[in-house]
């Protein structure tokens, strides 16, 4: 039976920039809805579920090749109900069907192409399918013809296949074995943390840094763990070597935008030369924080440059008119991947002049053959320029010339979780580098998310996942929205001393504890009152960003130091959530980087610096410069002083910045800041 075409281009009413990209397709797309499923039941056709995101290069390719093809669209419209999902708006749907795709094919990615029955059960999965058979893949046209024929001829077989797949996935999701962290002594605790460092060495790329082979993603959570472990007496040197080498190679390669600041999503090669060019908000937020922490430890000028340039990029190109931050910049411009960012020697010469062209090309690794495609090169900076003034001039001239090119598109929706990460990064970096403008930007983003996203759902304490143009989306926040926003607000409190941020953070944390608890020490990714899908997703492992599970664990650890009345309750809850970490710390540490950060924090504390008096801000900033990451409590009081407490031991209050610096282990390259505060 044919599917009616009366709702063509219904995506034009969507709030998702990704879905809007497909609003003019001849494919009769539906948004995810009960109405779409009912249409499939009424028409007795299978459902084609296509999942992607606006900055995804191969999503664009498949759209141009297949979804804009009138013949392909006609067949889809007549034989399927076609649903488009923005994975960034619906991470719950994406998670469920990505798990199925990986289980059935051995790999995942986007675009994700899933064929499901009327109950949402997948029976065939894949990612990108070409317009003609290629490398063992059928063409997309062949695939949909085959699936349609099978549905007509052997529908019962398809339904049974879907049931078997769901059953298999359920069997894979048994209760996680958990270690009782509270029962471990100090040495046992350290054994897991040190074992994770040694385990990371096994996958460390000794030649190019980073972990594993191509493609290489920025290992942000793992790097944060390694930076913290540099203080360990046994593995600190190894941890520092892997972290510092990785941070430097990423910053000097093509994944980093050498003239505009900010990082692309990942490197397609193992040497960090050619990136996948889309720029994601979450990557840049996480990396800004990591580079700020690298500078805090070492004073490395490269770390400071990356932080400053990347924040300049965020403020210049990612801020929305409402004051929050947009999700991503596209990989493509003018239909070509990386066109905005890549250069030829002749293009360099045209901008900087013949006199400096060779120097600039040599500095940026721009070659006649090209390091990318079509004789073009990505810009690298493998060594520091010998002439900083010339470097500054050339960089500015290239930046100005590039600004005249057609820019990649911006996905301007605001994602609560990613803005939470950005708020943390801006607030902390603003304090570390004494840049009030960055802190103000963090406050503006927090104001926007709280005013637009909070209370837009069924209750005053519910959080919408997304908004666009100041209008909240219809999808409820998932676990990482609550956890990351709460941490962002908590960081703002510690930087500014404003109690409102602490109160809002606590409300979000308490809501998450009530709504996402799985009853076994962990967390579901979706709230208990969220839309019922074929299964309720639950996963502790980090991916490109921290898992909601481990984000909650870190939040609980931090709050336990600031909430004396609830200390034991919050710490115990954090230990329960982190019980899954030890079994993976030794064999798969890259999957639990953010969990290892939380475990390290548990081992360090509770660890806080209480500040008071008119000069509280200077003490708070010094405390935030400590590599031991104490929590900051702002107290009322007329006298200027700071008091350091760790575990149950408190130092005497001090009004001497030098003494505070000794208490918190301030590194030698930061000692001049003490003199400035005296």
Question: Short summary of the structure?
Answer:
The protein has 678 residues and is of the alpha+beta class. It has 26 helices and 19 strands. A hairpin with a 2-residue loop joins strand 10 and strand 11 (336-337).
Produce the secondary structure layout:
Blueprint lengths: L16 H5 L7 E3 L2 H10 L3 E6 L4 H11 L2 H10 L1 E6 L4 H15 L6 E5 L5 E5 L13 H14 L1 H18 L13 H18 L16 H10 L6 H17 L13 E2 L7 E2 L2 E2 H18 L2 H18 L9 E2 L2 E2 L2 E2 L7 H8 L1 H11 L23 H15 L7 E2 L2 E2 H17 L3 H18 L12 E3 L2 E2 L6 H18 L2 H17 L32 H15 L4 H11 L3 H5 L7 H12 L2 E6 L3 H9 L6 E4 L6 E6 L2 E2 L6 H7 L7 H7 L1
Parallel strand pairs: 1-3, 2-3, 16-17
Antiparallel strand pairs: 2-4, 4-5, 6-7, 8-9, 9-12, 10-11, 13-14, 14-15, 16-18, 18-19
Instruction: Give the number of domains.
Output: 4
- State the share of residues found in helices, binned by percent: 40-55%
The main sheet comes to:
5 strands, mixed
Instruction: Count every beta strand, where a strand is a DSSP E run of 2 or more residues.
Output: 19
The spatial strand order of the largest sheet comes to 1-3-2-4-5
Q: Please tell me the overall pLDDT.
A: 93
Tell me the β content.
Answer: 5-15%
CATH topology of the largest domain: Glycosyltransferase
- First and last CA, distance: 81 Å
Gyration radius, in Å: 26 Å
Poorly predicted residue ranges = 1-7
Q: Which CATH C-level class of the largest domain is it?
A: Mainly Alpha
